[in-house]
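Q: What would this chain look like folded?
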Amino acid sequence: MIRIATIVGARPQFIKCAPVSRQLRKLANEVLIHTGQHYDDNMNEVFFRDLDLPRPDWNLGVGSGFHGAQTGKMLERIEEVLIKEKPDYVLTYGDTNSTLAGALATAKLGIRVAHIEAGLRSYNRQMPEEINRVLVDHLSSLLFCPTQTAVGNLMHEGITQGVHLVGDVMYDAVLEFTEIANKRSTILTDLNLNPKEYLLATVHRASNTDCEENLRNIVMALRATDEPVIFPVHPRTRNYLREFGLDGTPSANGRLQLVEPLGYLDMLILEQNARLILTDSGGVQKEAYFFRVPCITLRPETEWLETVETGWNVVVGANRAQIMSLLNGKQRPRGTPPALFGNGRAAERIVSELTEALAL
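A: My prediction, written as C-alpha cells:
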C-alpha cells in the first residue's frame, strides 16, 4: 500500500486535511505529522474533536516563535520523521510556516511534494504567507489548484507540469460539516443572537495585530456600530489588544462582544447566520462566499480575487472610515454568487490524481 505523509500545523490546515484524509485512508497508509504551530486547545484540540480527525502520528511540539526560528525547528524535526517514515509522497496545505518547512524538508530528501491550495497569489511579498506560497509551489511535483485563477497564476510563473484544477477542499469541508454544526452547535443561543442581526469579525494577521494604528482603527470601527458584533479573539490578537490598551470596555453601547476562539462547528454557524463578516483571514473570506454572506476584508489585498470580482467581498485594509461606511450600508450584493470553487468533491479529485501519479 502506498505511504503518504500529511503535514499540518495550523487550524486552517486541520479543516482542509479532514476531507482529504478521509478519502486518502481508503487507499493509502497515511502518516499525519502535526508540527505544533498551533498548540492552544482552542486553536488545536477542539478542531481535531470537531472534525473527527485521526490523532497525529507525530506531534513535533514546535510552538510559536520568530519566523526563522520556528521554520528552522520544524525543518529539523520534520526531516527526522520523514527519514524514519519513508513516505512515497508528502502532502502540504496552504501557506503557513509548517507548509514551507514541510516542503523544504521533503524536497531536500528527494521525496515528491504535493501542494493543496496551490497557485494562490496576493502579489504582496511583505506577507510571509506569500513567500511561503511561491516557494512551495516551485518545490512541488503535484499542484492542486482550487480555482482557474490559481492555475493561471502558476502558468505565468512557468509552472505547467503536475498542475490540476480540483476545486477547494474547504468547500468540501463546509458542505460536510455545516449539516453537523446545525445539529450540534448552540452558539446562537449561547450568545443570544438572532440570524442576520449581527456582524462577525476576526483579526489575526501580524500586519493588523502588531500595528497599533491598524488594530486601533479596526476596533474603533467595530465599537462605533449599533449592531451586535461577535469578535472571537485569536491569542496573539488578545495580547496586542492588551498591550495597546484596547481590551477594556468593548464599546459604549456594549454591542461589541470579545469571545474566546471558537471551534469549527460554532464558527460555521456564526458565519452562516451573520449579516456581514469582517476578516483578515483568507479562509473566512471563502466561507463567507460559500454561505452567501457579504465580506469586508481587513487587508490591502486578497489572494481570493474571485470573491471581489463577483461583488461579495470588498477589500479595505484597516481604513477606519471605509470600514464604518460599509458597516452603515445595508445593501447586499445582487443575485447568487457563481460556483467558483468546485462541486464539493475536491478531496476525491486530489486522491485520484495522487494515486494515479504514484502508479506511473
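The two ends are 15 Å apart (CA to CA).
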